[in-house]
Amino acid sequence: MLNSSPNRFLGTRIGNVMSFKKRLLAASCCWATMVCSVSVYGQEPSAAPNEVLGPSAAPTLPPELLNLFGVPEDSSHQWISAWLAKNKDWTVAIDRFTVTLHGFNVGGTGEVQIPRMMAAIQSMAATLDNESCELTITPDPKIWKLRWKNTQPIEDRNHEVDIKLVLNDRPIGITQSSATYQQADGTIVLRAQNGITSGELLRFEPQPFKNTIGYWANPKDTVSWEFQVNQPGQFAVAVLAGCGAGQGGSVVELRAGIDADNHNETASLEPSSKSMKIEFAMIETGHFQNFRWQPIGMLTIEKADKYKLTLTAKSLANKAIGDVRMISLVRQSSPQ
Description:
By secondary structure, the protein is mainly beta. The protein has helices at about 5-35, 65-70, 80-85, and strands spanning about 40, 90-95, 100-105, 110-115, 120-130, 130-140, 145-150, 160-165, 180, 190, 195-200, 205, 210-215, 220-230, 235-245, 250-260, 275-280, 285-300, 305-315, 325-330. A hairpin with a 2-residue loop joins strand 2 and strand 3. The longest helix has about 35 residues, at about 5-35.
């Protein structure tokens, strides 16, 4: 009797653990199915007046599974409702990193505008009445203009167009941008697609052969990134940039400081010391899309917090400053 109780207790504990694992696996599989399924938004002409094809909102990750999947709680599809309200002859389908726009009652040549995504385009294609057609994109600072064109222009508006964009990340708009997190080894990688531009011309160019912050011809324009630091220290900073022939020599200031918005402060972004500011000259690479790594100096971040890094032009050498695809901050090991 005395020996059987521990065995029964151990058996009960093992059974409970196995039961929990089964429940967690079932919940995980259920959520994975929800995430991987295609979400369709909008109304086809044949649908009932109030009928929406697909779910009315993207599924929300249960809080208890948030850490397991590492997915933010907010939906990546928040921009769609406002967009559909302005584009009533369109539907949107989201399948992970793929966005498919379907337009009906359109012309043989036309244009549709969507919000700028916080992702680069890996590939894009369009069909008009199920036949392949030309598709081009013109990125503006806050919107992307998608234009389709038939080989022989068609004037009437009795056609249907499908536009497919395959992205390298979730299709979220700039209003849903979030901070970049420091990697486990201490490295911080700031990609062009996560940069927030400010000014007249500067913008993110998502095309596969670009994937860069570009159109930097106005020295008053700036670009910023937010990032979370959990492992402070000294960082070696390098910029992956391109600069056209005869355009090198513009001086750029890289400045990092604690994100005032994160602390509900109105103070401007100011570094706590000179060690959080670097000036460098943009090196000519022969073409704006000839990207090369340029080490620019050391940056010291003294405490864990949420930071903002901003690039500002201090001087313009010729007509354009350069394109910036990525910034890396590699944490240096402490001397033994």
